[in-house]
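Review form for a predicted model. The reviewer records the input and the model, then writes brief findings.
Reviewer: anonymous (R2)
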Amino acid sequence: MVNLKKLNESRILVKDVFSKSKKNVEVAGWVSNTRGLGKIRFLLLKDVSGIIQVTAVKGKVPDEVFDKIDKVSRESVVYIKGFVKDSKQAPGGKEVVPEKFEILNAAEELPIDVSEHSKTELPKRLDYRSLSLRTKKTQAIFKIQSALLQGMQEFLNEKGYVQVFTPSLMGVPSESGSEVFEVKFFNGKAYLRQDPQLHRQLAVLGGLEKIYDIGPSWRAEKSHTPRHLTEHRTIAVESAFIDDEQDTMRIEEQVIVAAIKKVAETCKDEMGLFELENKIKVPKTPFPEIKFPEIYKILGKKGKELYGGDLDREAEKMIWEYVQKKYPGCDFYFFNGFPHKIKPFYVMEGGKGKEEWAKSVDLNFRGMEMSSGGQREHRYEKLMKNVKEKKMPLKSVEWFTKFFKWGAPPHGGFSLGIERLTMILLGLDNIREASLFPRDTERLTP
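Model under review:
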């Protein structure tokens, strides 16, 4: 039996077999496929870094090794010790000739197709998610998602932002009280947060000034669409001492630029699986900004009357068509100045003569909302006026609003959906593909 402790030290990744000049190697991973040709047995071994061919010729490798390779089942976990040789027929131009072969864990017959061109439908692939993750293209989604976040964090860290962790359990609903999950909390009840918004603001009021938070949010929204999840992740950024919502837009632009630049630099192979290696371009700044009420006029010309209301999916698509014509080549663009009456109580209104509108901003990417944000109301009297106008019970927000009596700087920020950004960037058909273990109205396992 292979010594697993020593294997952890001596094993190399498949990609290193190609990049290094080592002749004798120890590799381990999953059996992607096997086939026989006369006295030759071919095995494709895959790990997180790639795939390599293992070739066993009867009489030139130990009989025990040949027999094990001949009988091993697909997706079994195996260990191989052997030497590397050049081969024009092998993928990547190299193959491993095995001297030792051990089955660490044999796989039973698979319930789904885990080939790179799987014909298994998405719902069943999600039922067996740990298996469906084994395809290179699926793994590439999460490597790219990781690079997006890495780029964002590197930019924010460099600019002096502090990463914080805000609570997921709330004593009261975090926003309107609708679409929240209620959970048992000892002898009472609590709620899963809809957004880390309010605690981010309190952290800024606490003097941290520039923060960001990465974590989950939940919405008990009965929407079973290709773009909705009941649990999703966001990167949320909040900044003190801003002039207005324009400052939050400039920060968000740079966060997006840093994210896509990181992907372009580090994920060329992964992007190639989506045929996007030469199509993903770092966006130019500033992003186009389309304001209300001009948005309503644009929609009206297209036959959609929506004045004073929020934008639905049809309206978003119409504005995307408008952006493509007016700003060719621009994939990212802002909506600014939503009606104040449809926004939460913490949003600042537009100012003198613009009280009807709010300093509220959405970032859109190819016709889909990616984030919401803008400038927050930091003046206690104005904040309480908003609470009363929204007819919110004062006790439900007092835990938050009271801190604004004791010195609150002008501030603002945004909350950007990670799965949605991944989905649209890669052209995925369903947001569930961009979630490691998605949760929706019908799925709580695996």
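Findings: The mean pLDDT is 95.
Further findings: The longest strand covers residues 24-37.
Recommendation: see findings above.
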